[in-house]
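Section 3.1: Structural characterization of target chains.
Under the original work plan, the team committed to producing a structural model for every single-chain target entering the pipeline before any wet-lab resources were allocated. The record below documents one such target. The sequence was received from the expression subgroup and is listed exactly as submitted; it comprises 178 residues.
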Amino acid sequence: MLTLKLAVAVLPLLSVAVHLTVVIPSGKTDGEYDAYTAEITERKKAAEDELAKLEDARRYAEYLDEMPPLVEDYLRELPEIIDHMPRIREHVLDENRTPVYVPTKSAKSYKIEVVVPGMHRKRTPKEMEELRGEAERERAGRYRRAYEMLNLKVVDYPGGTLEIFWTGGSCKLSGTRW
């Protein structure tokens, strides 16, 4: 009796090895040996396919293990991204000023403007209000896009009960609990 052993490639990270053992009785014809060889080849191919699936599953598990820290980073930055209001300065450069530059010795150097009295002007209350309104509209747009991505819907019932629906589920809040 002849015993034939095949070892399929071992995936080092999975620490999995597949050994196929086929016992071939002696006194068989070439055709029978060919049939055994074909069977062994099929079993080897099936084992390799199974190992490939395990490797894909391992990679996907690693990908999922990396997700929580990434999601935490996004959530940590989300309030700043959505709620950011730019600083609106009360003073700006006067458009009618005559620039005064520092003399330089090299032709390759940058022109440096000197700060002199009268080069800034104070914005009018109307300008400040327009800039604040524009910044608030941009902020509201960021909130709107976030609500649309989450598919957020809120229903306000008489008596102070709120029902909130979103992509992750729903919640009902009543009374002073919220």
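Residues 42 and 89 are 75 Å apart (CA to CA).
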